[in-house]
Amino acid sequence: MGYVDGFVVAVPAANREAYRRHAAEAAPLFMEFGATRLVECWGDEVPEGKLTDFRRAVDAKADEVVVFSWIEYPSKAARDAANHKMMNDPRMKAMAGEMPFDGRRMIFGGFAPILDV
User: Fold this and answer.
1) What phi and psi values does residue 86 have, to the nearest 5 degrees?
2) Is there a contact between 67 and 103 (Cβ–Cβ < 8 Å)?
3) Which parts of 58-108 fold into alpha helices (H)?
4) Which helix (H) or strand (E) holds 56?
């Protein structure tokens, strides 16, 4: 069932197109490094919770939208190899300085699927 890296980030609403372009430029690199699929989702209905929620998780400001994304890999080993390549690729380093959001508030993690229907 592969392996999934998941991400949640707050993006200024005014940066929607800049974020889409940034993701579109990065996607071919992720695929080159071994990803099989990359999905970026712009928040459409992200309710505030009573105890916790997506907005609080990334400290989203009033003018920011929550983005949920994931990258699929054939295996954890493939993901680990891709991450190593990304950290050493000058194209990725150049993109890191041009992110249209505050990367310090991004949450992320690796996940082993347990159900895929």
Assistant:
1) -60, -45
2) no
3) 76-88, 90-96
4) helix 54-57
Give the type of residue at 85: K
Q: What's the CA gap between 100 and 117, in Å, rounded?
A: 34
> Degrees (nearest 5) of the Cα angle 75, 102, 19?
70
Burial class from Cβ neighbours inside 10 Å (0-12, 13-18, 19+) for residue 98 reads exposed
Give pLDDT tens digits for 55-88.
Answer: 999 999 999 999 999 999 999 999 999 999 999 9
Report the predicted TM-score, pTM, of the whole model to 2 decimal places: 0.92
The neighbouring-strand residues paired with 72 are: 4, 37
